[in-house]
Amino acid sequence: MTDTDRTHDVVLWGATGVAGRFVAEYLTERYAPEDLSLAVGGRSPDRLDSLVDELTRRSDAWDDVPVVVGDATDPESLRAIARDARVVCTTVGPYTTYGSPLVEACVEAGTDYCDLTGEVNWVRETVDRFHEAAVDAEARIVHSCGFDSVPADIGTLLVQSFAAETFDAHCETVRIYLEGGSGSVSGGTLASFVALFDAAADDPLAREAIRNPYSLAPAGERSGVDPGEQRFPRRDALRSAWTAPSPMASVNERVIRRSNALLGYPWSREFRCSEVVTTGTGPRGAAAAGLVAGGLGLFKTAMSVGPVRSALSRYVFPEPGEGPTRAEAEAGSFEIRVIGRGTAPDGSFTVEAEFGADRDPGYGATARMLGESAVCLARDDVDSPLDGGVLTPASGIGLPLAERLREVGFTASVGEAAEGGR
Ligand SMILES: NC(=O)c1ccc[n+]([C@@H]2O[C@H](COP(=O)([O-])OP(=O)(O)OC[C@H]3O[C@@H](n4cnc5c(N)ncnc54)[C@H](OP(=O)(O)O)[C@@H]3O)[C@@H](O)[C@H]2O)c1
Fold it and tell me: What residue stretches are annotated with the Saccharopine dehydrogenase NADP binding domain (predicted)?
C-alpha cells in the first residue's frame, strides 16, 4: 500500500479520554483541515460525536472531524484503522492492558505510530515482540512522546548534538534536573501505574524491565556501566544543590539508553545518564530532598503490596476518565535542565540545555509534545537514520520535534555552560 492510499494523516486513537481530548483540541487549534487530515477515534460513537461537536464549536477552521470507531479488544477494527492512516497517535491506556494489538496492527500495515506510555514493562514487551518486524515493515513505532520522555530524551539529544558540532566530541555523562513546575495527574495515569505494578507482581520479565537499567536496549546489549537511578538524597556538585530521586527516572533513563543504542552508540557504550529532582540549597534543600525521596519510596512500597494497590485503586485514586480541566491543563509549568560533560582534545567541556513550557507537563504540554510528534511522523519531518522499529523520540524523530515545540512556545535551548559555572 502506498501512502497516498491512506485517508488520514493522523488518527488520534483514544480521543475521548483526558489526554486524548487535549491532543484533539491542540491539533484542531494549531492546524487547519487542509494542513492536516485528522480523524478522531475511540470505542464510543456517542462520546466521539460529542467531542466532534465541541471541537467544531471551538474552531473556525474545522466544520467536521472524521470519526473512526473500534475497540482495543477487537484486532480487526484496529487493523482497519491502521491501514487507513499514515500515523496512529494513541492515548488509549493503560498500554500494558490495551496497547499491544494496536502496535501489531500498525506494524502489519507499515503505519507509523506514537503514544504516551511510561510503562517500561510494556515497552520491553513491544521491543521483544515487534522491533524486528517493524524494521522490516518500515513502521516507526515511537513510544513515550509525552512528558515521559520527550524533555529528557530530546534534551539529551540537544546537548549531544551541540557537543558534536562544537567540540567534535560527545558528552560522557548527561544529568537531567527537574528544576521546577506544577502539574496534575489523571485517573488514566494512575491506572497505568497500577497496571505496571500488577505486571511486576505477576511477570518476571516485567520485573527485569523495571530492575535492569539497560532493559530497553536491544537484545544482547542489556548490560553496561551505568548503575541506574539515584535512590537517596544527594548533594549535587554540578548544581551546588540538593537532589532527590525523580519519579520518572526509571522510564526516562532507559529510553535515553535505548536512543543511544538505536543510533549506533554515538555517545559511546560507556555513556551514563541520570535524572533527579533539584530541591534547593542548605538545610531546607536537604530536608526537601529527604521528603521527596521518602514520599517516592513510600509510594513504591505501598504500590508493591497487592491489597494496598487495589485499595488505593478502588477507594483513593480518581477513576480513568477523570483528570484536569482545560484551565488546569493550561495553568501548570515545567522546567528541566540537562547538563552534559565531555572531553575534547583541548580539554573538558560542559553543555547545558533547558527544556520547559508554561503548561501542565502531563496534559497541556504533553498534548503539544504528542501532537507534534504525530505531525513530524506524518510529514516525515524527522532527522533519523531509522525507517522503522520500536523507537524513542530522539532516535525516531530527533531535533525537528524540538524545533516544532519551540514554535508553540516551549523553551528548548542549548549552549556551552558559562566558564567556571559548573
Ligand atoms: N507520558 C505522559 O506524560 C502522560 C501524560 C498523560 C497521560 N499519559 C498516559 O496516557 C494514557 C491515557 O491517560 P488518560 O488520563 O487520558 O486516560 P483516560 O482518560 O482513562 O483515557 C483512556 C482512553 O482509552 C480509551 N479506552 C479504554 N478502553 C478502551 C478500549 N477497550 N478500546 C478503545 N478505547 C479504549 C478510553 O475510551 P472512553 O473515553 O470510551 O472510555 C479513553 O479514550 C495513560 O496510559 C497515561 O499513563 C501519559
Answer: 10-141
Query: Does position 418 have pLDDT exceeding 90, yes or no?
Result: no
CA 333 – ligand 1 centroid, Å: 22
Residue recorded with cell 525521596 = 293
The angle at the Cα of 259, spanning 258 to 261, to the nearest 5 degrees, equals: 60
- Tell me, yes or no, whether 411 lies in a domain: no
> Per-residue pLDDT averaged across 288-304, rounded?
96
| Domain match, 227 and 315 both | yes
288 within a domain of the structure (yes/no): yes
Residues with CB under 6 A from ligand 1: 14, 16-20, 42-44, 47, 71-73, 91-95, 98, 116, 118, 146-148, 186-189, 192, 320-321, 323, 362, 366
Residue 110's domain comprises 3-147+364-406
CATH of the domain at 96: 3.40.50.720
Going from the C-alpha of 239 to that of each of 96, 162, 230, 263, 308, the distances in angstroms are: 37, 20, 15, 29, 37
Q: Cα(289) to centroid of ligand 1, in Å?
A: 32
Same domain, 133 and 183: no
Residue 379 and residue 287 share a domain: no
CA 148 to ligand 1: nearest atom: 1
What is the CA(168)–ligand 1 centre distance, in A?
Answer: 43
CB 181 within 8 A of CB 334: yes
What's the confidence (pLDDT) of residue 103?
A: 98
109 within domain boundaries: yes
For ligand 1, atom 6, the nearest C-alpha belongs to 362
pLDDT in tens, 26-39: 999 999 999 999 99
Atom index in ligand 1 nearest the CA of residue 189 equals 47
Check: CB of residue 313 under 8 Å from CB of residue 209. Answer: no
Pairing of strands 333-344, 347-357: antiparallel
Specify which residues 39 forms β-bridges with.
11
Asked whether residue 415 is domain-assigned, the answer is no
Ligand 1 pocket, mutate which of 13, 18, 22, 328 (most atoms under 8 A from CB): 18
Does one domain contain both 238 and 337? yes
What is the share, in percent, of the chain residues with pLDDT greater than 70? 98
Distance between CA atoms of 219 and 252, rounded to whole angstroms? 19
